[in-house]
Write a structure and sequence with these properties.
heterodimer; A: 115 residues; mainly beta; four-stranded antiparallel beta sheet; globular; B: 109 residues; six-stranded mixed beta sheet; five-stranded antiparallel beta sheet
């Protein structure tokens, strides 16, 4: 089975520019997550979707970050404008969440560098 | 709030056994995950414990004590490829995972 796909893998932008990341979850997984992982830290949840609805976005900096999952499948995460502290790896994950299967499957991530 | 603690770094030699501890404080606990993350790669699932006790899977075992808010990951017969970051993550409800900062394990020859 194909895994979680993300693009681009790497992105370098200047501060105040905008950037968008794309994620395609594993087929059939209704739940999709975006995490931010700063170097040397564990992943931090930014937003969680169930189908195309937002379940949790309490840690999403909504003044600059936005995310959507319009058709309940793939998703985009946008940062506008970017700050230096946004430099991190952005991980997308998906899960099935039925019959007690709570495992989250992660994509390869997008490494963002803001200069 | 939530608090998840694990050591920042550990070192061990090839063939040895290492135990990585994780302590947590959280509400709505519904299990604890361990993930492995090699540098520059995505986290990959190692184990999930929801009941007290030890779960063994090949060279890796994971233990949970809910009353103590404590878990450990035990790695036996260490190999060089086990050098990675090991992430402890607490599940709240059905889908909310909160990760610790990770333990960087360095295996030397």
């Amino acid at each position: 089975e194909a895994g979680v796909a993300q693009s681009p893998r790497y992105k370098i932008i200047e501060k105040r520019q905008s950037v968008a990341f794309w994620c395609n979850p594993i087929s059939g997984h209704a739940t999709l997550y975006w995490y931010q992982q700063i170097l040397g830290q564990g992943p931090k949840l930014l937003i969680q979707f169930q189908n195309n609805g937002v379940v949790d976005d309490s840690q999403l900096p909504k003044d600059r970050f936005s995310a959507e999952r319009l058709k309940g499948v793939d998703s985009t995460l946008k940062i506008q404008p970017a700050k230096l502290e946004d430099s991190a790896v952005y991980l997308c994950a998906s899960s099935f969440l039925l019959a007690g299967d709570y495992e989250q499957y992660f994509g390869p991530g997008t490494r963002l560098t803001v200069t | 709030g939530q608090n998840i603690d694990q050591p920042t770094e550990m070192t061990a030699t090839e063939g040895a056994i290492v135990q990585i501890n994780c302590t947590y404080q959280t509400s709505g606990f519904n299990g604890l995950f361990w993930y492995q993350q090699h540098a520059g790669e995505a986290p990959t699932f190692l184990s999930y414990n929801v009941l007290d006790g030890l779960e063994e899977k090949g060279r890796f075992s994971s233990f949970l004590s809910r009353s103590k808010g404590y878990s450990y990951l035990l790695l036996k017969e260490l190999q060089m490829k086990d050098s990675a970051s090991y992430l402890c993550a607490v599940l709240r409800g059905y889908s909310t995972l909160t990760f610790g900062k990770g333990t960087m394990l360095l295996v030397s020859p």
